[in-house]
Amino acid sequence: MRTSVTQLVKELDRKLKAVIEDKDSREVLFTVELMLTVFQSIAPERRAREAWSIIPGYEDGVLPATDLTWVRRIRFLFPHLRNRRGWYELLEQYVLIDKDYRCFDIDQSGTYRSVEPSVVKERIRVYQQIVDNPIPKQDRSLPIAQKGEFSFYYFPEKNLRYGKIPDTEIPQPQLFPDYRPKSRVSVADDAEWLAIAKEMDQRLGDGQRWQRAVQYLRLEPVQQDGQSLIYDGCQHIAGGLGAGKSTFMVMETYRLVTRKGMKIGYIENSVEQAYQRQTELHKLGLKASVVTGPSGRQEHLKRYMTARKNQVEAFDEWQDEGFEALRDLSGVCFIHALAGIESPEPFYPCERLKQEKQRKLCPYAELCGIHAPLRRMQEADVWIVTTASLLYTRLPLALDPHSRLLFEAMYDLLDVIFIDEADKVQQDFDQAFVSEVDLMGAEHHLFEQMTAVSQSHLARNYGHIGHSLVAQWQFHLDHANTYIHKLFRLLNQSKPLDRFLRNGIFHPYRLLHDVTAHLLPPTTIKEESKVYHWLKKHIEDPYDQSPLTSQTNRLSSPTLTQNQREEILKEIIANLDGQHPLPEEQALIYDKLEFLLFLARIDYSLRQVINHYPQVSTLVGFDQEREPVFNRIDTEIKAVLKDSMTGMMLGYRYLVTDGQPLGRFKLVEYQGIGRLLLQDWSMIYEQSDNKAGPAVVLLSGTSYAPGSAHFHVSVPVSWILKREEIAPKVDLIVHPVYDELQGGTPISISGIPPGDQREAQLRKMVKCLLPDIEDELHYWREHWPKPRRVLTVTNSYADARIVGQALEHDPQWRGRFKVLSRNDAEEDFYFAKALIEEFSISEADMLIVPLMAVGRGYNILMPDTGESLFGSVFFLTRPYPVPGDFHYLIQLLHAQLPHFIRTIKKKGYQYERAIQELRRLSIAALENMVKKPDFWDLLSKEEKEVLAWYTMVMMWQMVGRLLRKGTPARVFLCDYKFHPISPFEDGSPHRAQKTLLEIWAEIIKKNRNDSAFVTLYHPWSDAILNTFEQEVRP
After folding, report:
1. How, if at all, do strands 112-114 and 104-106 pair?
2. 647 torsion bin: left (phi>0), alpha (psi -120 to 50), beta (else)
3. Which secondary-structure segment (H or E) carries 474?
4. At 295, phi and psi to the nearest 5?
5. Which of 162, 123, 116 is nearest to 11 (CA)?
6. What is the DSSP letter of 741?
7. How far is the C-alpha of 760 from the C-alpha of 611, rounded, in Å?
8. pLDDT at residue 619 above 90?
9. Would the pTM of this model clear 0.85, i.e. be above it?
């Protein structure tokens, strides 16, 4: 964490206090003057009202200045000033301060100029000194608890716990350094790789594995300029599936550590894969530490032991060297033991002990099992993390007085960071800033915690309420709470509304389009109507002075009768020039309209509560152990994270459990563009802190996907990793299944929502496919030295379960198949995901899996040959995103950022107008995504191409599980929606719309001369084109 403004201007504050007694006024003065000092350095001709536009993080096309060092530093001090409303309010308060005391004069037009104040005249010089240097990290060190009594607040039980530290000598841990200078070296050449591989094989003593692996490995530049790869900046290496990306990373890690003394980082896609990597590196003699974060420790431990339960025969074998990860996952907390907590929740009071009313650190950091992985990182050659631990785990104060996030610590202390499956990590970064938390209706929901925090600190301290920001925050918290209860009452009274909303994501703009459509004739252009205009204005500010605001106030009355309610809603519709609903539709439309009006107030208030929480927390001094657990972006991250393209946007999910009368609300918050944080990581603190960052190496088999909003990483591919071997062969077969009982109707699954109809279609499809699956098993017995097995792929775990239940009732298949499960399920036909790479020990002929579960990172092999165990894969369902999936939509939006920036540049907009235009374009784009039906036939050509990329990449990842060591694969597309055609009378195919298969073929033809594309998608692209020629050509 960085030093606060309050600390930086402490001496100025002491001097100003003599003439400006009000603390709030002094805070306003320092904030505005620091902001204007920086803004004046880059935009002296602009208006003061625009200064907030330097904070959201957008520079290209927004801030034309060339030197933005001061700007990047001030973002650490005021990350909350990302919207104009908060800045405007500060300016209004600033001009009320006596003009003689101010450093800036601001006229009514907003023009500002520097003036010499009558008091504390050195302020501007101090402000400039503050941003002339990196904003220092805050030293948060605390005294260490000593022998004797202690207490701490145990949040899971909401009570105080007590214990006693015995009188014994306790060793103290070593602290992490502040920074390590970076080493810049080139990648190894072929000769050095061979020498390294030979040394690695000698260490392992098990033949020539690494020498064979490197024999055909080649790293080639995209531009044939004779240069070698230098570990500096962000490097993007494209390598096809099975090209040897893991081989490259491990060999280079071994070389960089043993030859160059460098420290390396890895980002892995799962905790299981992180521990597999650790084991691999340990066998090579490298010290590697995995950090997963403490919250999921017990679940990770269970999965780790489940995945390896077949590798041990006796309990004491768990102590063997190959299971060293157990020491990281099964650590215990000394303080829990001393306080008598026998079944602890994952809450650790490491920095929350109290002795003599003073906050202190736990004295057992050097011995603690909880901190063991972080402690070992100090000596480790390699740090291995997941995206979650990278963005949310801090170094404990006992090891680092700055308590840095791993994201920043890795920047400071590592030389090279390898990111395998970079496109998946990019998605994880995007999703990390689209958070979801229980809002109300569940235990420990956000409002319960917010209210508890507020009452414990504000109810008996009226001095805090006198602060304008705190009073405003409390007002919005109370109002949001009130209107959430009104929504619950409305849902309880309206079952049609409950059915309309349940289990889907919605937000005010989505409901805006739905309500507007109900209140207008079908031919009306909604966006041009008074209904749309005024309801949208109400969403933007539901507390303005419009008639709709007063009408909403009347609707909010707790004593309102049903007749009075209907009269107010009729009045609203009439005032908006809306079309009155038909009698049979009236009740639901009234409910939707009222719900939208109330939701607009909740949404507005929640944005104020969340946005100002960090400042209010600092002002009031909320105890961190009692703080609400919702995903507030860390200030350190927020300062370098580009703000959400729409500005702060909230979504909501109403989840209902079967058998329960009411559900619970979840809050979905869109906070920033995570993918750019990843792409800028190598230099993200370079200008603000004068520190060079690590080289970041992005690798993936699908991270180059021009046209894909979800998988394409926009860092240019500069290197291509190839394996000079004969490529495996893929046969792609369009294999629709027909329901003979329905006159030969083709069976399709895609587009059918969960329910009885989807279940029936799945059961019919799998029953019809069983002879074909038997044929495939026979094919591999005849055409391969050892029998290969069959994968059956669905879109979800729920669909996989339905297929498994259908097979369980077939005596010919009972015992011959397994269904993948998330956990170690008890049913006989389930197979735990943690054991997936050991499926060869099962006698089952077929495994049924969800597409997203094993598409990446899992090698399911024959144990003796290392070849892919599965030979054929049946895709039962055309992959399709869940309608309204907020994460999917946000990634679509992020892909449009370069286009929006070009539009803004073309219009010549800068500063505030540029940010406002970006938000306008983004909200409009998101509205368009939400209101447009998801049906394939209704998508535009561009939308179909984006969706085709999405499915093509996901399916290629799955097919890649069948191609290890060059083994061939047979792929069957069973859902009729993959390629729905019906013949003309002459037998030629008729297609009203281009099918998914045809769009795939167009993508491949468009990119056939692109070397990176050919490297990544061959032989999948060949298979698609061959099938296209057979199926599509008349």
Report:
1. antiparallel
2. left
3. helix 468-493
4. -65, -35
5. 123
6. G
7. 47
8. no
9. yes
